[in-house]
Structures are given as structure tokens and as C-alpha cells.
Specification:
Blueprint (H helix, E strand, L loop, with lengths): L4 E3 L6 E6 L4 E6 L8 H13 L4
Antiparallel strand pairs: 1-2, 2-3
């Protein structure tokens, strides 16, 4: 996934993904119904675009 890997974390629905080569992390919410909300997709797109990955 573009060099990002899931970081083991405690409980809850927050998920952290770390890209070791870029020293970059993104935190996302894992929805209980499994459907990513448009706002979360936009946040992910903005994060990746700012880093030149899209």
C-alpha cells in the first residue's frame, strides 16, 4: 500500500499506518460497518497528494 503498513496499536477503532522510508504516519478511523466515509477518503487523498504519492 504505497509503502504504508499497519502499526500495531491498542484497542479502539483508530488505525495507524507508517511508511518507514518516508518517516510518515497517517491515522484513520476504522468504521464499525466497514464503509469508509467520503470525508475519510478525502482526508486520505489529501494526505497522499501532499506527499506526491497520487
Amino acid at each position: 500500500m504505497l509503502g504504508y503498513a499497519l502499526v500495531k496499536s491498542g484497542g479502539g477503532s483508530s488505525r495507524k499506518f507508517f511508511n518507514e522510508a518516508r518517516d510518515d504516519m497517517i491515522m484513520l478511523h476504522e468504521p464499525h460497518d466497514g464503509m469508509m466515509r467520503p470525508a475519510m477518503v478525502k482526508r486520505l487523498q489529501d494526505h497522499l497528494d501532499a506527499r506526491g504519492l497520487l
